[in-house]
Amino acid sequence: MSTIGTSSPRIDGAGKVRGTAPYAFEHVSDALYLWPITATVARGRVTSVDSSVAVATDGVELVLTVFDAPRLADTSDGDLTILQSPEISYRGQLIGAVVARTPEIAREAAASVLVEHLSEDHDTVFRADHPDSHRPQKVNGGFETTSRTGEPDRILDDPPADTVVVDEWYSTPEEHNNPMEPHTVVAIWAPAEQVLTLYDSTQSTQGVVSSLAPVLGLEPEQMRVIAPHVGGGFGSKGSPHSHDVLAAMAAMRLPGRAVKFAVPRQHMFAYVGHRASTRSRIRLAAGLDGRVSALVHEAWVHSARAKEFAEQAAVSSRMMYTADHRRTDHHVVPLDVPPPFWMRAPGEAPGMFAGEVAMDELAERLGMDPIELRVRNEPADDPESGKPWSSRRLVDCLRLGADRFGWDRRPAPAAHRDGRWLVGYGVASSTYPHMVNPGNEAAISHRSGRFSVRIAATDIGTGAWTALTLIAADALGVAADRIDLQIGDSVLPKATVAGGSSGTSSWGSAIVSAARRFRERYGENPPEAAEVTATTEQNPDTERFRISSFGAHFVEAHVDADTGEIRIPRMLGVFSIGRVINPRTVRSQLIGGMTFGISMALHEESVRDPRFGHVVTQDLAEYHIPVHADIADVDAVWLDDADEHATPMGSRGAGEIGIVGSAAAVVNAVHDATGVRVRDLPVRLDDLLYGLPDR
């Protein structure tokens, strides 16, 4: 029997609806509560701390400051190194904490702590011509900073006759991950066993262990991290941050007591990561037939002086379309801000916004349909490596999407109205790399006709509980209701992070390897207590082929002719993502990503005050995200496209491709409606005013 591809309800759904599925903060009832103290200058040092009132407050159990905190064993990671010196690297940096019997006492006592700072000149303004801009050694994902083929600059600087050139700048703002469940941790230090247990809202329980154990001076076996249910992460929970260190410090000072720390929503805009702002210069040269001859994508991103993180914003341009001459380059601008980190599709989301709007501009200047332009530049093999594609059906996605969306009824640009609304259509391509992380391990055992499947995977709301159960059942040849899945605990067999759309591929491959070994050893009638453990089998096809997912977004935009107000009544995504494990949850993931793209295009922007260095839009009232009125008919479909080169399940990742390119499709549709080309996100009403019709 085959369970893969069956539309299945979430195994954890009932527990979540009933409120019985425990999230990090809900573990342990008898606990103390931590409230953080943060720096109120963007750069400088703490000169004094007066915590006498807090210490004397009834119910306060501990006050930590930069002057009396435990020493960390490893201070090489600037994101995790806190309370080790008076130096302040960014506003909002953790510089102390109060732990008390109730959250109210902890918060009030923390407010009574008097901190004096020495403020120094700071710089939080991102710009491409920053004097400290430099090329990093590597960019996120381990990619080379620069790549070059041919002589693109020569062609673009002196283009041949009958060549159309696009040379424009595009930007995306600083953005912040805001999952419904904020970063939360419950820390307990057991002195007798010398073990630190964390109930953590994380995308990788074992990643927390491997990152924090050296910092805290512990051996890995002295840490256990538990996370059966996580309320979203969007990348920010892919690694521990300084709040985990602070909770661990407090717990180790209060042996045997549980310390709870739920990061306040306002602090989600400080010390738990964010998407860096980007600036991209895209240069394209194409003949009158639309074939791109030269492409240059130079990207600038901001980072932090405390720790460098270089987002790989130009990487997708290395392989998306044909161009015999191409160059991509990355630059980092260090600022006095918190360290950036992963946010859904880091690199690809801002980079493909720039690239896909540039392609739309090229189509406009050529007088060519933007779908036809993309089809004419479809590469037979990977332009970057020269390897054959395992499966690249972008053209099929474009053609099917155009047919389903009614692209042939696309009105002339800036020429169609529906009452007071200007109407336009937009399209953009999407891609996301296929990732299977090495080192995953699964254990399978049999008792009384049931199969226990154990792996330290993490379900961050994406449906891993259900998908891994379906994969295990399919690989063992049994019904899904005979599978007992155990995930979300660092003591389970090895599992890599739920990030980079790699979770199902990485963990599922390990489960299939274990199931194959189990069936080879025990057959279809295993004895009681039969058990095997296996790691992911090596897949040589990942070296022989270029494996990526692809898709196409189609957007209908309405713009109010009087006010410039934007509505998106219709959006369609068509994707090639390999074999779909669970259609129900995959569709949810794709629609979620597309909604993320609408949000990126029209709403999201973290506004940092350059005078003081902090984000002023630090709540969900002022950091704008879509509401129901903004999201109407959003639909996602996929091709029947098993990719046997990718994983033993034939699947590829589906978590992040929905956001890649979707913001560009929105912006391209807005241009089609108004004739106004917006190159800087988010789109503002005043960007469109000069394109609105005269009354």
UniProtKB/TrEMBL annotation:
InterPro entries linked: Ald_Oxase/Xan_DH_a/b, Ald_Oxase/Xan_DH_a/b_sf, Ald_Oxase/xanthine_DH-like, AldOxase/xan_DH_MoCoBD1, AldOxase/xan_DH_MoCoBD2, AldOxase/xan_DH_Mopterin-bd_sf
Organism (species): Gordonia paraffinivorans
Domain of life according to the entry: Bacteria
Annotated stretches, region: Disordered: 127-160
EC nos: 1.3.7.9
Keywords on record: Molybdenum, Oxidoreductase
SMART domains with a match to the protein in the record: Ald_Xan_dh_C
Name recorded for this polypeptide: 4-hydroxybenzoyl-CoA reductase subunit alpha
Pfam family, one: MoCoBD_1
Domain Aldehyde oxidase/xanthine dehydrogenase a/b hammerhead: residue ranges: 18-121
GO terms, molecular function: oxidoreductase activity
